[in-house]
């Protein structure tokens, strides 16, 4: 379970245990963590937990959300990360940083899937081992015409404060998982559920929050 340690002007203010899957941060009194300052938007940011992994997301705030001095829309949190929200410095304390293999294994626990038949297991493993990275070719939305290589264990897609999904690399291949928003992502026009991760095949077209991209290996 993670923890946030909150400072302002170099002084300690509070610490909060992250005991919910989604924690909202903002000036609004209904926020899980209220930061009552004009530099903070009413709905400024949120933290989402998937298994033991946390994501910070900016919710379209006026002044932005910064992670280790870099402005972010959504990003994975690691132990020791420093989040800046308005005039507040928020230190994230979580588990010790994991390597890509461990991180992929953790996220895998949140994905429900049926194991392949025994006679296909070896072929599936060989195929996954050969595809160490994937590429997204954006067909529609704000990134249309661009390409992005996926080299890490996790890659997020979507709109800040809206629909967000993650592409997770596992030993068996790449999986699409819904993590935020009211509308679930689609693969080849078919909507996936919030509780199942779906394996991506070469040529699949993913739609998330107005973004459309084809995945290739």
Structural features, described:
With 217 residues, the protein is mainly beta. Helix content is 10%, strand content 46%. It has 2 helices and 21 strands. The strands form 4 sheets. A 6-stranded antiparallel sheet has the order 2-1-11-10-7-8, with no helix packed on it. Strand 14 and strand 15 form a beta hairpin. The model is unreliable at 97-131 (pLDDT under 50).
Arithmetic mean of pLDDT: 80
What is the count of β-strands?
21
Range of strand content = over 45%
Q: Give the overall shape, derived from the CA principal axes.
A: elongated
Count the helices. How many?
A: 2
Strand order of the largest sheet: 2-1-11-10-7-8
Helical content class: 10-25%
State the order of secondary-structure elements, H for helix, E for strand. EEEEEEEEEEEHHEEEEEEEEEE
User: What is the makeup of the main sheet?
Assistant: 6 strands, antiparallel
Summing up helix and strand content along with how strands pair, one would put the structural category as mainly beta
What are the low-pLDDT stretches, counting only 5+ consecutive residues below 50? 97-131
Alpha-carbon distance between the two ends? 35 Å
Radius of gyration: 18 Å
């Amino acid at each position: 379970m993670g923890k946030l340690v909150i400072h302002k002007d170099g002084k300690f203010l509070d610490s909060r245990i992250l005991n919910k899957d989604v924690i909202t941060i903002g000036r609004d009194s209904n926020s899980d963590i209220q930061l009552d300052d004009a530099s903070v938007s009413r709905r400024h940011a949120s933290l989402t937990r998937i298994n033991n992994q946390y994501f910070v997301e900016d919710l379209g705030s006026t002044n932005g959300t910064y992670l280790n001095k870099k402005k972010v829309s959504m990003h994975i949190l690691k132990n020791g990360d420093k989040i800046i929200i308005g005039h507040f410095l928020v230190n994230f304390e979580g588990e010790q940083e994991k390597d890509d293999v461990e991180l992929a294994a953790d996220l895998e626990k949140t994905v429900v899937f049926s194991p392949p038949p025994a006679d296909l297991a070896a072929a599936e493993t060989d195929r996954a081992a050969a595809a160490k990275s994937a590429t997204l070719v954006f067909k529609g939305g704000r990134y249309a015409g661009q390409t992005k290589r996926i080299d890490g264990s996790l890659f997020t897609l979507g709109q800040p404060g809206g629909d967000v999904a993650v592409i997770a690399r596992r030993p068996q291949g790449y999986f699409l998982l819904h993590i935020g928003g009211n509308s679930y992502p689609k693969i080849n026009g078919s909507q996936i559920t919030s509780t199942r991760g779906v394996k991506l095949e070469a040529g699949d077209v993913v739609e998330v929050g107005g973004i459309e991209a084809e995945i290739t290996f």
